[in-house]
Design brief:
Structural class: alpha/beta
Largest sheet: 7 strands, parallel
Number of strands: 7
Helix content: 55-70%
Bound molecules: guanosine-5'-triphosphate, magnesium ion
Strand content: 5-15%
Number of helices: 13
Distance between the termini: 46 Å
Radius of gyration: 22 Å
Order of helices and strands: HHHEHEHEHEHEHEHEHHHH
Length: 325
Amino acid sequence: MTMANSLFERLRAGDRAALAKAITLVESARPDEQEEARSLVRQCLPHAASALRMGVTGIPGVGKSTLIDALGLHFIEHGHRVAVLAIDPSSPKSGGSILGDKTRMERLSVHPQAFVRPTAAGGTLGGVARRTRETILLCAAAGHDRILVETVGVGQNELAVDRMTDLNLLLMISGAGDDLQGIKRGIMESADLIAITKTDGANAERNARAATDLRQAIALLSPRENGERPGVLLCSARTGSGVPELLRALEGMAAARLADGTLFQRRRGQDLWWMRSAVEESLLNAFQTDARVSGSLSAIEAQVVDGTLDPFEAAAALVRLHRGA
Ligand SMILES: Nc1nc2c(ncn2[C@@H]2O[C@H](COP(=O)(O)OP(=O)(O)OP(=O)(O)O)[C@@H](O)[C@H]2O)c(=O)[nH]1
Ligand SMILES: [Mg+2]
């Protein structure tokens, strides 16, 4: 039996060590292991559909990990098995953030019904995102039916998580000074639900006001294609208030999208996106490593820089070189 086959059988049987090993295989850069990883992912695919994939984004320190700990326990109370993954290419392998995530998820990380995987380290955002997507499939096939992907909600990370999740939860805190700008900066594109967290102690009143402002601002924006606008909830991971409501809202949205077919429609669109981006990456890589191109590149670039060659003609010439034409 191949390594992939035996790992597959063990992870399907709920063997956590096998799941961890399978993820390491998917993260491997060795060509022989990549082959095994592809075979493993292929076997997992038919068993991955029913798991709900949720993104949790927000600025650094907003309280994502702490809330995931609280929310994850509620999912478990409802009979689910949880997996927590993270996308954060900026965090170094042995850096503090992994340790931080584990300690902020102290209940979940030791729970037998949960699997917490620290950030996949190293590489480009594209590479990390692709491995995280495959890790989702492995966790789903291993029976973790509620998958939470934590990512720092800045720039490209947010888009990456949007390409692998069914729903996205955006965490905010009041008084960060960017509440309303945040909405304008495309929150409507990627957030299905907004939770204003740390609603406890001295924050409670201010957060309630911020929620009202946010709801009003959202009401003025044009809705999405499907007519939806993100709802705004208040919660506290510390006291647990609002967390059951958050779970209900997420489950309700997921159920509605499952019922009207948009959940699988979204996943099909994501799969197409991954296919296209893999094609682009591979073509670009072939171009960039082509000796015929690199042999002439600096000369052609010099001509573009000194204005003797039009940039589009230069590009056409390079592509011709690559094609061997
Ligand atoms: N008062 C209060 N503090 C909270 C709450 N949730 C988190 N915190 C605190 O906020 C800080 C950051 O929490 P994290 O959960 O690590 O935040 P994060 O968004 O995961 O941070 P990064 O992963 O570093 O981006 C910690 O000191 C938490 O104890 C909450 O509901 N109420
Ligand atoms: Mg965190």
